[in-house]
Fold this sequence. Notes:
3 helices; globular
Amino acid sequence: MFRNNPRPPAPIESFASGLDVRAGRVLIRAGAVGNEAMAIVAGVAEVFVRGALVGRAGPGEIVGELALLDDRPRSATVIAATDMRLLVLDRGQFAEWLHHPGSALQLAEGIARRQGATEDLLEHSANGSHRLRASGQDPIVQVGQLR
């Protein structure tokens, strides 16, 4: 992941606040104004667009970052499928993290992977086969152990 950048990104833990949530909690609601992004430390969240399950996010992945990058309403609803441990970054914390070497590249690579997975899902849906892959195979950010 860090082929073009010899320095790894700043640890996201340095900029975020920890939050534990129970399964079933709505983390992000489609159409709402986005004021924070969340890095998943533990647990799984399900991502819904217009009521349809379109993906899952797990440890090492970030949700909610797009609304902070483009100042548009949230495009999806994200619900905790299991009990979760999150790192929450408000706009200022997110911007500060992005200014550290490698962080923006790491985030962009993760967004690109997610876009590719979405395109695969749409292609499979058009062909009548709809199967979601488990998340966590290639995390967007490396989240260390919380103590």
